[in-house]
Specification:
The protein has about 250 residues and is α/β, with parallel strands linked by helices. It has a single domain, classed as Rossmann fold (3-Layer(aba) Sandwich). Helices cover about 45% and strands about 15% of the residues. α5 links the parallel β5 and β6. α3 packs parallel to α4. The protein is globular and about 50 Å long.
Length: about 250
């Protein structure tokens, strides 16, 4: 039920962090992977790693906030591998400031990268998935889809929006056999969160204190849920948001 042989997945922002952790899991399960990201050097390194784990991978340089670039990404995937079965909307960014210090340009940058990109990529992928008889879309939310954080208002708004966008797509596309779900990572040790630890005093201590497992997550902790939501095992699971957080969200 977890076999992804013959399937093709696009992972946006898949050249590092959570995206690469998920891509590794999908590759090991047999999927061919398209890494869609802007940093071509990082993408080349990720593709080399994924080719050693699975049946094939390639990179497509993509700005996920650009509608034309996103459509080229889907076309390049179909040209290379002949199909598209799985989309992981993972690309994201953050600007850590309280609401009264965030500029409109910064607000739009975060919302466009985190939320509008998920719309653009899903919109572009839908025709190929419908024509193939079904598909899987995995949207990456956050603990801030659930909790507030005074230092990340735009990020929290975008990740709350991800959950509601997931539900809307799941309801609309169920008739097309397309399952759409969200994953809510907890505090995962990535370049983005390493920067957060430098910027937010006490963050490391607070995360360790509140997380029952007593550690930060690592990108490979995201691999299992990606395989589950990309495979036949989740064919009756849609519109949900699954925390992968070491128990962080169950603590009062």
């Amino acid at each position: 039920m977890f076999d992804l042989k013959g399937r093709v997945a696009i992972v946006t922002g898949g050249n590092g962090g959570i995206g690469l952790g998920m891509a590794r899991g999908l590759a090991r399960a047999g999927a061919r992977i398209v890494i869609a990201a802007r940093n071509e050097a990082k993408s080349k390194s990720a593709v080399q790693e994924l080719e050693a784990l699975g049946p094939g991978a390639r990179a497509v340089a993509t700005d996920v906030t650009d509608e034309a670039a996103v459509r080229r990404m889907v076309q390049a995937t179909l040209a290379a591998f002949g199909r598209l079965d799985i989309l992981v909307n993972n690309a994201g960014t953050n600007i850590r400031k309280p609401p009264h210090e965030v500029t409109l340009a910064e607000w739009r940058q975060v919302l466009d990268t985190n939320l509008t990109s998920a719309y653009l990529c899903s919109h572009a992928a839908y025709p190929a998935m419908k024509a193939a008889g079904g598909g899987k879309i995995i949207n990456i939310g956050s603990m801030m889809s659930i909790f507030g954080a005074g230092f990340a208002p735009a990020y929290a708004a975008s990740k709350g929006g991800i959950v509601q966008f997931t539900k809307a797509c799941a309801a609309a596309w169920a008739k097309d056999n397309i399952q759409v779900n969200a994953v809510l990572p907890g505090w995962i040790d990535t370049e983005l969160t390493q920067q957060a630890r430098r910027q937010v005093p006490g963050l490391d201590e607070n995360v360790l204190r509140r997380t029952p497992t007593g550690r930060w997550g690592v990108p490979d902790d995201m691999a299992g849920v990606a395989v589950f939501l990309a495979s036949r095992a989740s064919d009756f699971v849609t519109g949900t948001a699954i925390p992968v957080d070491g128990g962080y969200s169950i603590q009062g």
